[in-house]
Each structure stands twice: as C-alpha cells, then as structure tokens.
Amino acid sequence: MSETSPQQGAESICPPVDLSGDAGWVPFDAPSLVGESLRFVSGEPDGNRFRVRYYRDSEQHLHARIWFGPETEGPPGHAHGGAVSAVMDEALGLAAWAAGYPIVVGNLNISFRTMLPLQKVVTVESRVVSAQGRKVMVHGRLFCGDAVYAEGECLCITLPGR
Ligand SMILES: CCCCCCCC(=O)SCCNC(=O)CCNC(=O)[C@H](O)C(C)(C)COP(=O)(O)OP(=O)(O)OC[C@H]1O[C@@H](n2cnc3c(N)ncnc32)[C@H](O)[C@@H]1OP(=O)(O)O
C-alpha cells in the first residue's frame, strides 16, 4: 500500500508575473470573440503552465504577453518545443480571428531559434500577411528584447458558413 507524502500533489504556485502591455496596446478579450474554448494555453491564468494576456496595438495587430511556467519544461530549465508551438498555434490562429477570419489552422511551421528559459515573460507579435480565397497567412515571432526564440508561419483556412 502506498501513502501520499505531504509534498506530493501540493506543488507550490509561482508568484504573480507582470503581463502588462506596451504603451498604446489595448487588452483583447479573446473569449468574447471565439468562446471559452482556448483553455489549453489560456485556461490557467494563475497556474504554473502558461499565463497569457492578449492585446491589440493601434493598427489592430494582435500581441500576446506570455509567461512560460515550470510545467512547460522540455530541455532542462527551458520550454518544450510543443509548448512553444501551442502558444504560436493559439496566438497566430487568434490573430486571424481578430482580423475577421473564422478559421482553423491548416499548417503551422515553427523555427526554434533560441532555447527559451522557463519563467520568462516573452511577447508574440503577429501579422496577417495575406488572405486569398479561404487561405489566410499569419506570421509571428516570439521574442524578448533582442532575443528571438521562435518564428512561425501559420496557414489558416476559413470555415465555410461561419
Ligand atoms: C477558436 C479560435 C481558435 C484559434 C486558435 C486555435 C487554432 C487551432 O489550433 S485549430 C485546430 C488545429 N487545426 C485543425 O484541427 C484543422 C484540421 N484540418 C481541417 O479541419 C481541414 O483540413 C481544413 C478545414 C483545414 C481544410 O479542409 P477543407 O475545408 O476540406 O478545405 P480544403 O478544400 O482541403 O482546403 C481549402 C484550401 O486550403 C488549402 N489547404 C488546406 N490545408 C492545407 C495545408 N495543410 N497546407 C496547404 N494548403 C492547405 C487547400 O489546398 C485549399 O486551397 P485552394 O482553395 O487553393 O484549393
């Protein structure tokens, strides 16, 4: 018979982090646009996985301020590539929605440029670069200061009837 020690299942919650936006950014309410379904990345705003806030700038481009917590670990002390990809999938897909295109992601190419240390606040910036027929291309970059951690090219496909 196994017993649970007091430490097990009682992982401590990391302290609050500053996810405030740049001057001129306006908070973007993703659930009011796409519903409450974005729980995988955005669902635990005070947890130890991801903490995310979305903003739009004066040109309506979507930005995400994101903290990668200890539960996103891949290589020791650094974020898992899947965690980075999940963030890019959500942020770049949401950028298309925010631009007026009801889409799902059809193809996502990520270049991992630099290993991302855990418990760091970074930014994802995005641009809808083209829209032809049902295909909407969104480019994005995950960075902090001069350090670029990942770049993404996201082909979004509009859903008929939405
Ligand atoms: C709610 C807010 C969510 C925002 C953040 C979350 C983003 C996500 O994670 S979405 C979930 C992950 N994505 C998915 O599950 C999508 C799964 N795939 C599908 O459902 C379908 O393949 C779908 C809808 C993308 C396309 O299928 P379908 O509607 O039959 O369209 P289809 O005719 O195949 O393709 C339409 C056009 O897109 C192109 N296309 C589709 N997929 C791709 C692809 N992977 N690569 C290149 N081109 C593609 C086709 O070539 C076609 O082009 P054209 O019009 O020039 O002939």
From TrEMBL:
Residues 77-146 form the Thioesterase domain. SUPFAM superfamilies: Thioesterase/thiol ester dehydrase-isomerase. It catalyses: decanoyl-CoA + H2O = decanoate + CoA + H(+); tetradecanoyl-CoA + H2O = tetradecanoate + CoA + H(+); (9Z)-octadecenoyl-CoA + H2O = (9Z)-octadecenoate + CoA + H(+); (5Z,8Z,11Z,14Z)-eicosatetraenoyl-CoA + H2O = (5Z,8Z,11Z,14Z)-eicosatetraenoate + CoA + H(+). One of its GO terms (molecular function) is thiolester hydrolase activity. Its EC number is 3.1.2.2. CDD domains: PaaI_thioesterase (cd03443). One of its GO terms (biological process) is fatty acid metabolic process. It holds the Pfam family 4HBT. InterPro entries: HotDog_dom_sf (IPR029069), THEM4/THEM5_acyl-CoA_thioest (IPR052365), Thioestr_dom (IPR006683). The keyword Transmembrane helix does not apply. GO terms for cellular component: cytoplasm; membrane. Gene3D superfamilies: Hotdog Thioesterase. The keyword ATP-binding does not apply. It is a peripheral membrane protein. Keywords: Apoptosis, Cell membrane, Cell projection, Cytoplasm, Fatty acid metabolism, Hydrolase, Lipid metabolism, Membrane, Transit peptide. It is an enzyme of class 3 (hydrolase). Its main location: membrane. It is found in: Cell projection, Ruffle membrane; Cytoplasm; Membrane. PANTHER family: ACYL-COENZYME A THIOESTERASE THEM4. Belongs to the THEM4/THEM5 thioesterase family. This is Acyl-coenzyme A thioesterase THEM4. It comes from Geobacter sulfurreducens (strain ATCC 51573 / DSM 12127 / PCA).
